[in-house]
Write a structure and sequence with these properties.
Number of helices: 6
Number of strands: 10
Radius of gyration: 23 Å
Largest sheet: 6 strands, mixed
Order of helices and strands: HEEHEEEHEHEEHEEH
Strand content: 25-35%
């Protein structure tokens, strides 16, 4: 019986040694990666420039572990811009597959998929599902409203019986407005000329009201 016990202990110790070596190599590999910093246009900048931007009110950042680096990418929570004519046409073609776009203003609520922010497995109390918001955006004749998702993981907690979630199957909306994964969810409000205001990351119905007011001037 003793040789069998020795064999089992040897195999067990060998397996533990192998796991420790894998863990050690993983740590060494991670430590060999460098930090890289990027501005809102995904251009490489210095750490000092990065921190200077972060000291301003409207700037946040996302961090990603990539194959060769830790990437820290700036974004502005409230972002404004204008689509080119081809981009606006591309957006409208994509939205026409999901509903009507007969009105002057388009609102898009974009759910990127489960993350640390929206990972709780319970019915959402997010105020964009409040009756006053839903009533205003569904009964105002000048607004097209779309509920768009990238991944449906955890989407069942975001009132799918109350709102009509549609998949961004051609990824046009993601490409135009949401170029990386922002935490929680994001929004886009676009006028008929292609002017837009984005809320990147966590926002509420009050931010949509503000954007509507600004673009309706």
């Amino acid at each position: 019986s003793k040789p069998r016990n020795v064999s089992r202990n040897y195999m067990k110790n060998t397996a533990i040694t192998a796991l420790l070596l894998i863990s050690f190599n993983t740590i060494l590999y991670s430590q060999s990666k460098i930090n890289k910093y990027y501005n809102t246009n995904f251009e490489n900048i210095s750490e000092k420039e990065f921190n200077d931007f972060l000291s301003k009110d409207n700037y946040r950042y996302n961090g990603f572990e990539l194959e060769d680096q830790f990437a820290f990418i700036l974004y502005q929570r409230k972002t404004k811009g204008k689509l080119s004519a081809p981009e606006l046409e591309e957006l409208n073609k994509s939205l026409l597959k999901k509903g009507n776009i007969n009105n002057n203003i388009t609102i898009i609520i974009f759910y990127p998929g489960k993350d640390n922010c929206n990972g709780m497995e319970r019915i959402s109390t997010w105020n964009v599902f409040d009756n006053d918001y839903l009533k205003k955006v569904t009964k105002t004749n000048s607004i097209n409203h779309f509920w768009i998702y990238k991944s449906d993981e955890n989407l069942k907690y975001y009132h799918p019986k109350k709102v009509d979630w549609k998949k961004d199957d051609d990824q046009i909306i993601e490409k135009l407005f949401f170029k990386m994964h922002y935490p929680c969810a994001s929004s886009a409000v676009i006028d008929k000329d292609g002017n837009y205001i984005l809320n990147l990351g966590e926002f509420g119905k009050q931010h949509i009201w503000e954007d509507l007011k600004e673009l309706s001037k």
